[in-house]
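To: structure desk
From: M.T.
Subject: fold request, one chain
Message: Could you run this one when you get a chance? Sequence is below, nothing fancy, just the single chain.
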Amino acid sequence: MSLALGAFVTPASALAETVGGVSATASPIANSTGSVTNQAIQVLQGPYITNTYGDGISCQGPTANITPYATRTKSWQFPWEPTYNDPVYDMRDLNEDGSLDNPGGILYQVPTRTGQKDNYNTSIGLSATISFPLDGKQQELCKAAAEKHNALRDQILANRRLEFELTRLTKCGELLKQGIQFHPKSPYYSICADVLADNPPGHTHPHIHSIPSVSRQTSTPVSPVSSRAEDLGAPLQRGRGQTSP
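Reply: Done. C-alpha cells follow.
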C-alpha cells in the first residue's frame, strides 16, 4: 500500500496599477541598521591575605585590591565607500502632454559623501575594593597565638644554640687535652680558638712554691764534713773476714 502526497502551488497574482500609462507595482523596502558595543571591566576579588606562622596558625587581614585598566576600541565598515553617485532623472515634458518625454532617463550623477568614518574609543580608569573581616575578636586571638608561637620558637632556638656551644666546648676541650687541635692557618681553627683546656700535655699553669727558711743559730753543733771513710764510725770490710783497724 502506498500513499501519494501531493502539493498544490497556486501562483500569486500581482496587483498592478497603471499611472499615466506606466505600470507601477508597490514594492516597499524597509532597512534597519544598528550597532551595539558592550564594554565591561571585571574586578576579581581574591581571597584575604593570609599569614601562616606554622603549627596550624594562620591569620587573615584586611585586603585592598586596586586594579588599573586601559581599553581602546576601533570600529570601521566594509566595504569602504567615502562617496556614492546620486542620479538626477530626466523629468522634462517638452510637448506638455502630461507625460515625461524620457521617463527613467538619467541626466547626470552627483557625487555625494556617505559620511562613513572610523570610530575610536579609549577608556582609562581605576577600580578599587577594600575587604576586611567582620569578626575582630578572632583576629586578636590569632595575633596573640602568633606572638606566643614566635616566642616559643625563639626559646627553642636559644636552647639549641646553648646545646651547640656546650657540645663544642666539650669536644674542643677533650681534643686539647689529647694534644689535638686545628692548624692556625686552617679555616676551622676558629672553631676551638676560644676554648681553654685545664693542664693539656706540655702545659703548666703558673704557680709559686713556698720554701721554709732555716735559722743559722742552732743548739746542736754541726759536725764538719769529712772526706775519710773512717770518720763514718762503722768498720769497713775490705774482704771476706777482714776489717779495717
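Reply (cont.): Residues 63 and 131 are 5 Å apart (CA to CA). Let me know if you need anything else for the meeting.
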